[in-house]
């Protein structure tokens, strides 16, 4: 009986391995051929930019109501940049539509690509606006908050202070 198990595992792996390899090759082929299809339409980008502007506008209103003028000024600067980005996206979307009507595929694709590149910038501006209000709000920085609870039975002399790292938040 012990000899059959390794033989069975060998046969199973021999049969399953080609299927996995074929699936990986198909995935790679799909990745290269579907890259342009993953690009959002200009209208979707404009809608996302509008939503971003509305969220930051609400943030600005709340900051002003709280009387935090310095924070409000910072958020207002970010909102101005988001609004300018939105205007640019609208202009480029109109150009894309014009080029599509004129059947100028090359220029339409160029404008579409430029509109798409505006979305990451707007997302970054929204993160900066959040940082204006709460410097710890940067959720994509990779920082982690660690809370250590020490049992009351542990002798005080057994506890040593951790090393303080530069840039870490200590409470």
From TrEMBL:
Signal peptide: 1-22
Keywords assigned: Signal
Protein name: Secreted protein
Species in which this protein is naturally found: Sandaracinus amylolyticus
């Amino acid at each position: 009986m012990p000899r059959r198990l390794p033989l069975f595992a060998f046969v199973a792996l021999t049969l399953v391995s080609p299927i996995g390899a074929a699936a990986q090759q198909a995935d790679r082929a799909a990745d290269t051929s579907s890259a342009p299809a993953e690009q959002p339409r200009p209208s979707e980008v404009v809608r996302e930019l509008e939503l971003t502007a509305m969220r930051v506008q609400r943030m600005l209103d709340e900051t002003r109501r709280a009387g935090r003028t310095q924070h409000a000024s910072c958020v207002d600067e970010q909102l101005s940049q988001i609004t300018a980005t939105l205007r640019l996206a609208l202009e480029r979307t109109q150009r894309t539509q014009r080029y599509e009507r004129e059947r100028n595929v090359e220029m339409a694709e160029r404008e579409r690509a430029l509109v798409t590149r505006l979305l990451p910038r707007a997302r970054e501006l929204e993160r900066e606006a959040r940082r204006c209000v709460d410097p710890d709000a940067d959720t994509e920085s990779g920082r982690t908050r660690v809370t250590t609870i020490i049992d009351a039975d542990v002798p005080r002399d057994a506890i040593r202070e951790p090393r303080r790292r530069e840039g870490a938040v200590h409470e």
